[in-house]
Amino acid sequence: MTDATPYTVPKEPGRWRAITLAALVHLALLVFLWIGIRWQNETPVTIEAEVWSPQVREAAPLPEPPTEPQPEPQPVIKETPPQVIERPVEKPELKQPDIALEQEKKRKAELEKKRLEEQRLAELKEKKRLEEQRLAELKEKKRLEEERLAQLKQKQDAEDKRLEKEKSEKAALAKKAAEDKKRKQDEADAKLLAKMRDEDMRRITGGVTGTGGSGDAPKSQGGRGDGSYAQRVAAKIKSNITFNTPEGMDGNPAAEFEVNLLPDGSVAGIRKRKSSGIPGFDEAVGRAIEKSQPYPKDKTGSVPSSFIGIHKPKDQ
């Protein structure tokens, strides 16, 4: 209820029944009075009454006007009308305007608070749904990326294996070709070396060309065999070779040197004609040739102008 609403008394239960009963009682009283007056042949007297409350009260008797003596009438028995018990009207408890307004404000505030809370929960729910959707999309994207990388790695591994196989095949072919080439070269070198050894032995044993004569023009003296000279020169050089032959060395490669001598037996020049393939051994032979000078004279009393020496690591 607000200030603009007029105050109304609530309807009392049984009100119309009480009014109807009061009206019937009044009507019965009027009929009774009318009969009594008519029975006495009296002039009807108008009765005026004002009802001030719902309770029915007995009207006061009017003063009798002076009349001529009349026969004594029969006593009138007055009926007592039933008393109408009026129920107390329950007055509704009126709320003070400020309390009602405060309660209304409180109710609206609670409704607004409830609405805001529901809105907040709905927003949180929607936010959670969107976050779950985002995470699901990221997970799917990650899965696809991992699958793509796995496929790429698989292709790369297959390509690496193919290249490795191709490389191995090429290396095997190259190794075989190199081995074949080396084998052929070794065979050719062995044949050449044997041929040169035979020629040198024939030359050394048959006579060393070139003697230490006067002037720059050497003299050629053939037909003078001195096999012991070659052995002495070879033994002298061999004694000065310092080299440790590696264990497990395959073969016995030869190093071939041509040595030019001066008339006094000193070394004029050294030329390596063929390497043994072992640099350390080749250097050791070169140092031994330098260390072995002066070289001795042959049986003719002169120093050969040059000689060719063949040396092998396992023969030392």
From TrEMBL:
Gene3D superfamilies: 3.30.1150.10. One of its GO terms (molecular function) is toxin transmembrane transporter activity. Residues 59-106, 138-230, 291-316 are annotated as: Disordered. Residues 62-74 have a biased composition (Pro residues). The keyword Membrane applies. Residues 87-106, 138-203, 291-300 have a biased composition (Basic and acidic residues). It holds the Pfam family TonB_2. InterPro entries: Tol-Pal_TolA. One of its GO terms (biological process) is bacteriocin transport. Keywords: Membrane, Transmembrane, Transmembrane helix. The keyword Amino-acid biosynthesis does not apply. GO terms for cellular component: membrane. This is Cell envelope integrity protein TolA. The gene is tolA.
